[in-house]
Design brief:
- This protein is an alpha/beta fold.
- It has 2 domains: 181 residues, 3-Layer(aba) Sandwich (Rossmann fold); 67 residues, no CATH class.
- Helices cover 35% and strands 26% of the residues.
- Helix 4 runs antiparallel to helix 5.
- The longest helix is centred in the last third of the chain and has 17 residues.
- The protein is globular.
- It starts with a strand and ends in a 7-residue tail after the last helix.
- The structure holds adenosine-5'-diphosphate and magnesium ion (MG).
- The site of adenosine-5'-diphosphate has 13 residues, from strand 1, strand 2 and helix 1.
C-alpha cells in the first residue's frame, strides 16, 4: 500500500459575499494515496472546484485543514499542477513557447527541463506542431498542450477540473487514454472533477460522489481492478462497467431532490 499524500481533515468552506453566505463544503474528510487517481462526481455547485482550489492553495478553508505530505497547505506550490476546462494558452505564442511558460516563470528554464517538456509533447503526438501558434490548433490539441505545460514543471499532484468537457466525444475518449497513460507512467497523483459517470469509472481508482447544499461527500466507491487496470477505452468494454454505471447513476439521482437542513 503506498503512502498517504493528501489529507482533508474536517474541512469546511463558507464563502462570504455581499449577498450573504454560501456553505460550499461541510466536514470534508478525505485521504489520498500517492499515485492514486481520484474522480470527483457531483451536481453543479456541490463544491468540486472549491476542493481543487483549496488543494492548490488558492483559497483557505473556513475551518479544518488540508495537508500534503503532512504539511499544511498555506499557499500555491510547484508540487501541485492545476489544469482547467479552459486551456488559457497564449494565442500569440507558439506551442513550444506555451509549454515552456511555467518553466520561464519559475526560472527553471534549463536544457534538461526543456527537453522533458518536448518529450511530453512528443508523447501527446504534438511534436510536429511545436512551431504552430496556439490559435491554429483544435480544442483537443489545445488541451493536450495545456496538459504538457502543466506537467512540464513536474508537479506530484495534478488537479483536473473538467478538462475534457468542451471536447467532442471521440476526442474525449482518445484524450482519456492518453492522459491516463502519461500519468500512470510517471506515478502522478491525480484528482479529476467530472460530470461524466463513464469517464469517472474508466479513469479512476476511486470515485468520490458528492451531494449539494451544503457540499459534502456522499459516498466513496473503489473501482475494482478489472475496471481500473485497463486504459479507459478498454475499461468501458469490461462487463462490470455497466453495473458500476447503474450503481453510481442511482446514487447521483438520489441526490437530485435531497438537501439536508442547514
Ligand atoms: P462546483 O465546482 O461543484 O460546481 P463550486 O466549488 O464552484 O462548485 O461552488 C460551490 C458553491 O460555492 C456554489 O454554491 C457556488 O456558487 C459557491 N461559490 C464558489 N465560489 C465562490 C466565490 N468565490 N464566492 C462566493 N460563492 C462561491
Ligand atoms: Mg466547478
Amino acid at each position: 500500500m503506498s503512502k498517504e499524500i493528501i489529507k482533508f481533515n474536517n474541512v469546511c468552506k463558507t464563502y462570504v459575499t455581499m449577498e450573504g453566505e454560501t456553505e460550499a463544503l461541510r466536514n470534508i474528510n478525505l485521504s489520498i494515496r500517492e499515485g492514486e487517481f481520484i474522480a470527483i462526481l457531483g451536481p453543479s455547485g456541490c463544491g468540486k472546484t472549491t476542493i481543487l482550489s483549496l488543494l492548490a492553495g488558492l483559497i483557505s478553508p473556513t475551518s479544518g485543514s488540508i495537508t500534503i505530505w503532512n504539511k499544511e497547505v498555506k499557499s500555491t506550490s510547484q508540487n501541485v499542477g492545476y489544469m482547467l476546462q479552459h486551456d488559457y494558452l497564449l494565442n500569440w505564442r507558439t506551442i513550444k513557447q506555451n509549454i515552456m511558460l511555467g518553466l520561464e516563470i519559475l526560472k527553471q528554464n534549463t536544457k534538461e527541463n526543456r527537453d522533458y517538456a518536448l518529450e511530453l509533447l512528443n508523447e501527446m503526438n504534438l511534436l510536429p506542431f511545436q512551431n504552430y501558434y496556439a490559435h491554429q490548433l483544435s480544442g483537443g490539441m489545445r488541451q493536450r498542450v495545456a496538459l504538457v505545460r502543466t506537467l512540464a514543471i513536474k508537479p506530484y499532484i495534478l488537479l483536473l477540473d473538467e478538462p475534457f468537457s468542451a471536447l467532442d466525444y471521440t476526442t474525449r475518449l482518445r484524450l482519456e487514454d492518453l492522459v491516463s497513460e502519461t500519468l500512470r507512467k510517471r506515478n502522478k497523483t491525480a484528482i479529476l472533477v467530472t460530470h461524466d459517470i463513464a469517464e469517472a469509472i474508466s479513469m479512476a481508482d476511486r470515485i468520490i460522489i458528492m451531494a449539494t447544499s451544503p457540499g459534502r461527500i456522499k459516498r466513496e466507491i473503489e473501482v475494482p481492478p478489472p475496471l481500473r487496470d485497463p486504459l479507459p477505452f478498454s475499461s468501458r468494454k469490461v462487463p462490470e462497467f455497466q453495473k458500476y454505471f447503474q450503481l453510481i447513476w442511482r446514487e447521483m439521482n438520489e441526490n437530485e431532490n435531497e438537501s439536508i437542513q442547514k
